[in-house]
Description:
By secondary structure, the chain is mainly beta. It has helices at residues 8-22, 28-32, 180-189, 201-206, 210-222, 572-577, 588-594, and strands at 41-53, 56-63, 72-75, 79-86, 95-97, 121-127, 132-137, 149-155, 166-176, 238-242, 252-254, 261-267, 274-277, 283-288, 291-298, 300-303, 308-313, 319-326, 332-338, 414-415, 472-481, 486-489, 501-504, 508-515, 521-525, 530-532, 541-542, 544-547, 552-558, 563-569, 580-586.
Amino acid sequence: WDGNMYSRRRFLADRCAATSLLGVSLPAWARTGEPGAARNEFDLTIGEQRLRIGGRDARATTIDGSLPGTLLRMREGETVTLRVRNQLDTDSSLHWHGILLPPDMDGVPGISFAGIPPGETFTYRYRLQQSGTYWYHSHSGLQEQSGVYAPLIVDPAGPEPAEYDRELVLVLSDWTFEDPSRVFARLKKSGDYYNRNLPSLMDIFRAKDSGAALEERLAWDRMRMIQTDIADVTGYTYSHLLNGHAAGDGWHALYAPGERLRLRIINASAMTYFNLRLPGLPMTVIQADGQNVKPVEVDELQIAVAETVDVIVEPGDGAWPVMAEAMDRSGYAFGSLTTDASLMADAPPLRPRPRRSMADMGHGSHAGMNHGAMKHEAADDSAMDHSAMDHSTMDHSAMDHAAMSHGDEAAPIRREPAWQPRRGPGVMNIVDDPQSRLAEPGTGLTDVPHRALNYAQLSATEPFYDQRPPTREITLNLTGNMERYMWSFDGTRFQDAREPIEMAEGERLRLVFINHTMMEHPIHLHGMWMELENGQSPMPRKHTISVKPAEKLSVLVTADAVGDWAFHCHLMMHMKAGMMRVVRVRPAREERRDA
């Protein structure tokens, strides 16, 4: 995709071709977007399948022979049974992302269970304690990248708080025709292998102030970092999919004029952040990560890997584009919402690619300025445009809660000894002045001329059941070396970590994340909610939190789930490279025995 307008004639021709190639291999929900009825018993099969993706032959690892897999719809309060048969020649698993359940049902091999051997069936059984939009995927090797993912919806036991006439499920993902293991091997040899947007000397000559541009370029070179390093894996190898359809396949969903639509948006990608919009059509955000939030009307939102966002739209008559640009704008997923199957929307052109700013490095006074709002997208934008800084949108109440005294705490908080930041083979950069960036909407969206969602706007509709202040604080540093493709917490890879992060049953904690890298990291905690300290009341609950480059933020956790739980960056290649730990919640009786 080069960003040129995709013609309606070409669109319809490709749609007809795609229907014959893809229709038989996709479940009904993926073709129409409509999720179907709730059940409490399921039989699922993990295997290999020949498919057509974007008009090309592909060999995928699938759930029930399709990519994405079978949509599961359940009901809050019921006990569900899921029999999963593994027809691969290697071990497999399924993890129910964001679902609260016993640790042996969580589906993480080596942590909570042994995995599902070839030819065997494992039965998952658990009672649903929540409702909302979620998803599920393999936690074995790189199987998720090769197709083992699907949506999961839990209907509430009572009425829905939001009113709508029709609901549609939109699953965003990334697909590579390469072997995912080969992709990882290439990244290990060169972290910039898939970056085909490297800056050149011509950029300096084309700049308005070539001297300033040269100085800035030299500064980046001294840090051994690249301004265009937005995504590790790009459209050079990725096809970006919407419900399993490539951008030219002509995916569309029908609705009746006048209907209010609920879009259940799931980012099931392995490595791709998406910036999603329906150009000209406002979206009202009503749910984040399966949890209801107070309505926020926006025109665009960034959805991190593994997050889910539910929105209400009222499109009226006609056809509306669903445009989900990869954050680095190297490609996009696309579809149409339409009242007439013969009337399809045109895809807008890709916008200029964003660049990293000094705020992403967090060095000295630069980190305290909202450089994310400066215009760096064009090649000649080396000179900073301070007029583009919008201080009025910054939520100062959300700033650096971890560093504040929190005078409302009932008892002094105990801060665990923190890792002392230091450079080494696996730690390329140390941020000397991390900042709150919760009021920023994300890379590529800081200077758009419309409303873009940010974390500071999210507020839960109801407070969490545990309103105690935290009594202990743990700081976790997100560290890495892009050149060696090493990722870690506190400079230690998962394979080298000797001890889990320990919590006591019932304990109330604050986790502080400091991102010392120039990449976003979607941090996912299994088994428990994280409450984001963003200055709102009630605080929003999330299972996955995106931490921006050079950012410092904090979350509250109630350790109410005894057992061992995975805790990791949800960028698949980062997790494989070492950005993962185990969280161990010890039973209260064990704490008493030790005391």
